[in-house]
Amino acid sequence: MSCDQCYPLPQVYLVDGGGGTQRSGQSPSLVPCWSFPPAQERVRSHGKSRGFMGVSPCLAIVLMLLFLLVFAALGFEAYQIHNMQIALRDVTEGEPVTEFNAAQKQIGVHEPEINEEEKEKRTAAHVMGRIEKDDFRKTLRWEPRIGVAFVSGGVSYRVEDGALQVNKSGLYHIYARVELIFRHCSVTSSFVHNVFVRRTGYSSPHTLMEAHREGFCSHQPGHAWTTESYLGSTLTLQKNDRVYVNVSHPAFLSHSHYGNFFGLYEI
C-alpha cells in the first residue's frame, strides 16, 4: 500500500467483504486521504486571535478605562458631598438660634406672642354698635367695652360725641361698617354713610370716606330688606384729631353689635 505520509493520520484499508484471503501478489485498493491541520495547532491559533477569555486586548483596555472613569466620578462626588456637609455643620454651629431659623410647629399663619403690656401700648381701637331705642342721631355712638371691643395705646373714645381721638400724629388705618334694615323697601330707597374728622383749628369737619347706597331693594316694594356699607382706608391723622361715623338713616340701623362697628389702628 502507498499513501501520503506527510500527516500522522491512520491508514485506511479495504477488507474483502467475502472474508476470503487476498493474494499477496495483488495490490490492495487504495482509498484517498484528506489532510487536516492538527487539532492542537487549530486550538492554539484560535486562542491567539481571541485574546484572554475570549475578549480582545483592545476591548479589555477600553472597558478598564471606563470602569476607572466611573469610579473616579463617584469618588469626586463623595468628596464634594463630604465638603458640603462640613460647611453646613459649620454654618449651623456658628449661627445663633432665632425665631426665624428655629423649628416651629405652625398651624396657619404664625403670629408672635404679645404680652399684655405691649398690647396696652399699641395705638388701636375697635368699638361696636350701640343699640338706640329713642335717641337716633346721625353721628353714631358706640360701645367701647362690650364683646370684642377695646381701646388701647394712644387713642381714646369720647363718650359725649362718639369720636375716636388719637393722641399722636401718624399713619392710621380707619374702618367702619353699618348694617341697615329697610322695613318698607322700595326702588327709591337709599342712604349715605361717611367717616369724617374734626381737627383743632378748623371749624368745619373734613370728610375722609363716603358711600352713597341705592338700588339695593328687590323689585317687590313693601318688603323688608337688609343692606350694609363698609368703608376702609389708610390715612394720615394729626395729634388730637377726632374721627366720627355718620349715617343718614340712623333709625334703620340693625340691633346687632357685630353688624355695626368702627375702629382704627396705627401702622
From TrEMBL:
<keyword id="KW-0472">Membrane</keyword>
<feature type="transmembrane region" description="Helical">
    <location>
        <begin position="52"/>
        <end position="76"/>
    </location>
</feature>
<dbReference type="GO" id="GO:0016020">
    <property type="term" value="C:membrane"/>
</dbReference>
<dbReference type="Pfam" id="PF00229">
    <property type="entry name" value="TNF"/>
</dbReference>
<feature type="domain" description="THD">
    <location>
        <begin position="123"/>
        <end position="267"/>
    </location>
</feature>
<dbReference type="GO" id="GO:0005615">
    <property type="term" value="C:extracellular space"/>
</dbReference>
<keyword id="KW-0812">Transmembrane</keyword>
<dbReference type="InterPro" id="IPR006052">
    <property type="entry name" value="TNF_dom"/>
</dbReference>
<dbReference type="InterPro" id="IPR008983">
    <property type="entry name" value="Tumour_necrosis_fac-like_dom"/>
</dbReference>
<dbReference type="GO" id="GO:0005125">
    <property type="term" value="F:cytokine activity"/>
</dbReference>
<dbReference type="GO" id="GO:0030903">
    <property type="term" value="P:notochord development"/>
</dbReference>
<dbReference type="GO" id="GO:0008625">
    <property type="term" value="P:extrinsic apoptotic signaling pathway via death domain receptors"/>
</dbReference>
<dbReference type="GO" id="GO:0005164">
    <property type="term" value="F:tumor necrosis factor receptor binding"/>
</dbReference>
<dbReference type="GO" id="GO:0006955">
    <property type="term" value="P:immune response"/>
</dbReference>
<comment type="similarity">
    <text>Belongs to the tumor necrosis factor family.</text>
</comment>
<protein>
    <recommendedName>
        <fullName>THD domain-containing protein</fullName>
    </recommendedName>
</protein>
<keyword id="KW-1133">Transmembrane helix</keyword>
<dbReference type="GO" id="GO:0043123">
    <property type="term" value="P:positive regulation of canonical NF-kappaB signal transduction"/>
</dbReference>
<keyword id="KW-0202">Cytokine</keyword>
